[in-house]
Amino acid sequence: MINQYEVPAYIEDNIPALKKALHQFPAIFHIYDTVSCLSEYTGKQLREQNFSVAGKCLQLAGKLYERGNEVVRSAITRVFLPVISSVPTGDAVSRIRIYSLIPDSIYSLYIQQQISNNGNR
Questions:
Q1: Global pTM?
Q2: DSSP-derived secondary structure letter, 77
Q3: How far apart, in whole angstroms, are the C-alpha atoms of residue 121 and residue 19?
Q4: Within 23-68, where are the H helices?
Q5: For residue 40, what are the domain limits?
Q6: For the chain, how many structural domains are there in total?
Q7: Residue limits of the DUF7674 domain (predicted)?
Q8: Are 109 and 75 in contact, with CB atoms under 8 Å apart?
Q9: Is 114 inside any structural domain?
Q10: Which pLDDT tens digit goes with each residue over 48-90?
Q11: Were 62 and a residue from 47, 88, 93, 105 both cysteine, which residue would form a disulfide, CB within 3.0 to 4.6 Å?
Q12: Is 101 exposed, middle or buried (0-12, 13-18, 19+ CB in 10 A)?
């Protein structure tokens, strides 16, 4: 099981582009800041339709949710999913592409968040 202290190194190993960003704050003690950094980066990749990088980020988030302890799972649910769900999906083709990138472990949570966001607009 991955705990909150292992998450920054796990993200750095899988998404080297975030290494500098994760070192700007003591992320090892702030799981929500760490996951926020990942979610903002992932959202940016989705908005720019850089689907290969966004896919890696989403797969990473799925693994963190699947293998993480309760604190890590909570951070993915409370921080990552709301940010990702708020990214405009654009046309039908882009929407299908984004949906296809979401790993099974967080797909239903993503859809629930999408429904909540649409209800609040």
A1: 0.91
A2: I
A3: 35
A4: 31-47, 51-67
A5: 7-119
A6: 1
A7: 9-114
A8: no
A9: yes
A10: 999 999 999 999 999 999 999 999 999 999 999 999 999 988 7
A11: 105
A12: buried
